[in-house]
Write a structure and sequence with these properties.
single chain; mainly beta; Neuraminidase; eight-stranded antiparallel β-sheet
C-alpha cells in the first residue's frame, strides 16, 4: 500500500483514507500510521487538516454519517454533528481561522432527496445552511466544499444525474458575503484553491475519457485540470484511462497530490500521485493491496521532498495480504503483477495493478475455495466446452475460461484458466510456488455414481440408466475416465 523510501526523503505529512479508516504518512511513505479504528460496519474518511495542522476533521458512519474532529497529538475525538437515520454529513473543510467547518448534508426521505451545504461554528455548535436543493425525480447532491484562503468564497460542486444516467457535476463558487453563486466549470468537481488563492486544481469529466458504471448509473472518468480563480485558462494536467480526483495542494504550491486509478483503470485500485502545476514530474507515492485515496496535506509539516523521482520509479508494494485457513492461492502477487486486494472467507480477489504502467499488468483473477462435499464435480451441467485432466497431482476441470481444481478435500474455482495462473496455484500458507498438489478425494456418493456409470458403458446407457441428459452423461463418463489414474480414490469425509 505505502512504499517506504529512504529516510532522507521524508517530506510533509499526508492524511489519507485506507480501507474505511484514516491513516497518515510522510510524503515518502515513511511513518505510516493508522489513526482511527472504526467499529462495526461504519467507516471513517474524508480527512481534513485544521489550518494549524493540529486537528483533523472527518466523516464517520454507515447509514448515518456525522462530522468528527480528532486532536492529532492526543488522539481524543469529539462528535460535531449528530448522527441521524437517513442523513449523511461529509466532506468537511475548515475556515482559514479554524473556527468554522463547512460540510455537505444529504438527507434521504421516502419521496425526496435533499442536499445542502452547511457551516457549523465550532465554539457554539450553531449550524447555518449556506445552500440547499432537493429533488423527487433524480439524484442531486453537493460535494467538496472548500474555503478560499481569505475565507470570502467557497468552492463546491453540484452533481445531477442526466438523461443518459451519467453523473454530471458542475464546479461553482459561492460569495459568502452576498450569497451569490457563480458557475466556474461545467463538468468540474473536487475544486481546491492554491495556497495563494490565484488558481484552482480540479477534476473535469469534459474529455469523457472512459466511464465506470454501476447497476443504474455511470460516471465519466475525470482528468486533473488547473484553472485561474475565475475559472478561465483551463489547463489539462493528466491524460489516462483511469479517474484522477480529490486533489490537494502541497502548502508551498509546488505540487498537487491526488488519487488516481491510472495504473489500473479497469480494475479500479486507487493510489496517490503528485504532479507539478505545469503538468510535469508525475510522482508515484503509494502502491499496495488496499486503495489509498482522499489525501489532505498537513499545514506546516514540510513540502514534497527531493529524491522521490518522476515517472516509473519502482515502488515495492506493501500491505500485502496473507489469507488464513486452507485452500489454494497465487501468493500475494498473481501472474501479471496483480496484487491480492480482497480476502473474504474462501474468496480471494486479485485486482490491483502493482506497476506504474497499466500495460505491465494482466487481467484480474478471482479464486474461491470450498469443501469438496459442498462443491463436488458435476454439480452443475456444463454451459461451455469442458474437459477433465490430471494437473500437478490434482484434478483440473476446464469449462470455457474458467477452471476448478480438486485437491485434497477442497474445490477451488479460478476465474481465469490461463496457464500462468494455474501453474502459480499453491496451498496456503505457502508464499512460494510448489511442484505438486495433494491428490483429490471425492464424496462416496459421487464415487458410487461413477461405478454405476462404468458398468452401464456408453453415454446413452448412462443417460437412460441414471435418468440424466446426454450432456450430463458425457460429463460423468469424462470424469470417470479422468480419475482412473488416482485410483484407489480415497473418499472425502462428508
Amino acid at each position: 500500500m505505502i512504499c517506504a523510501q529512504p529516510a532522507v526523503a521524508q517530506g510533509g505529512r499526508i492524511a489519507l483514507s485506507i480501507d474505511g479508516d484514516i491513516w497518515t504518512m510522510r510524503a515518502d511513505g515513511s511513518e505510516r500510521t493508522r489513526l482511527t479504528t472504526t467499529p462495526g460496519e461504519a467507516a471513517s474518511g474524508q480527512a481534513a487538516w485544521s489550518p494549524d495542522g493540529k486537528q483533523i476533521a472527518f466523516s464517520r458512519g454507515n447509514e448515518a454519517n456525522s462530522i468528527w474532529v480528532r486532536d492529532f497529538a492526543t488522539g481524543s475525538e469529539r462528535r460535531i454533528t449528530a448522527a441521524r437515520g437517513g442523513v449523511l454529513d461529509g466532506d468537511p473543510n475548515w475556515s482559514p481561522d479554524g473556527g468554522t467547518l463547512v460540510f455537505t448534508r444529504h438527507r434521504f426521505g421516502e419521496r425526496r432527496l435533499s442536499t445542502a451545504l452547511v457551516a457549523v461554528d465550532l465554539a457554539t455548535g450553531r449550524e447555518r445552511t449556506l445552500a440547499r436543493t432537493s429533488s423527487r425525480h433524480t439524484l442531486v447532491f453537493y460535494g467538496a466544499p472548500a474555503f478560499s484562503p481569505d475565507g470570502t468564497r467557497l468552492l463546491y460542486d453540484l452533481t445531477k444525474l442526466d438523461r443518459t444516467a451519467h453523473f454530471a457535476p458542475v464546479l461553482n463558487v459561492l460569495d459568502l458575503a452576498t450569497g451569490k453563486s457563480t458557475r466556474l466549470a461545467t463538468g468540474g468537481r473536487d475544486g481546491q484553491w492554491s495556497p495563494d488563492g490565484q488558481r484552482i486544481a480540479l477534476t473535469s469529466i469534459r474529455d469523457r475519457n472512459g466511464e465506470q458504471c454501476g447497476s443504474d448509473e455511470c460516471s465519466w472518468q475525470g482528468e486533473l485540470y488547473l484553472a485561474n480563480a475565475d475559472g478561465s485558462g483551463l489547463i489539462r494536467l493528466t491524460e489516462n484511462k483511469g479517474h484522477d480526483g480529490q486533489p490537494t495542494w502541497v502548502p508551498d504550491g509546488s505540487a498537487i497530490v491526488f488519487a488516481s486509478t491510472r495504473n489500473s483503470p479497469e480494475l479500479g485500485g486507487s493510489e496517490l500521485y503528485a504532479i507539478r502545476p505545469d503538468g510535469s514530474c508525475l510522482t508515484w507515492m503509494t502502491n499496495g493491496a488496499e486503495e489509498s485515496y482522499a489525501p489532505d496535506w498537513q499545514p506546516g509539516s514540510g513540502g514534497l521532498p527531493d529524491g522521490l523521482g518522476c515517472g516509473a520509479v519502482p515502488r515495492e508494494p506493501t500491505g500485502l495480504k496473507q489469507p488464513k485457513g486452507r485452500g489454494l492461492w497465487l501468493g500475494p502477487i498473481a501472474p501479471g503483477n496483480v496484487l491480492l486486494s480482497d480476502v473474504e472467507g474462501g474468496f480471494l480477489s486479485y485486482d490491483d495493478c502493482s506497476r506504474f504502467e497499466p500495460a505491465e499488468c494482466g487481467d484480474s483473477v478471482d479464486i474461491s475455495t470450498g469443501s469438496i462435499c459442498r462443491n463436488p464435480p458435476l454439480r452443475y451441467p456444463p454451459e461451455a466446452r469442458f474437459s477433465f485432466e490430471a494437473f500437478r497431482g490434482a484434478l483440473l476441470y476446464r469449462e470455457g475460461r474458467h477452471a476448478s481444481v480438486y485437491s485434497g478435500d477442497l474445490s477451488t474455482g479460478v476465474s481465469e484458466a490461463r496457464a500462468d495462473v494455474l501453474d502459480a496455484l499453491r496451498p496456503l500458507p505457502s508464499a512460494d510456488a510448489v511442484e505438486s498438489l495433494a491428490a483429490p478425494r471425492f464424496p462416496a456418493k459421487l464415487l458410487n455414481r461413477v461405478k454405476r456409470a462404468r458398468k452401464l458403458g456408453n453415454f446413452r446407457r448412462v443417460a437412460h440408466g441414471l435418468h440424466i441428459s446426454g450432456v450430463r452423461a458425457r460429463q460423468l463418463l469424462a470424469f470417470a475416465e479422468a480419475i482412473e489414474q488416482f485410483e484407489p480414490v480415497k473418499p472425502a469425509s462428508c
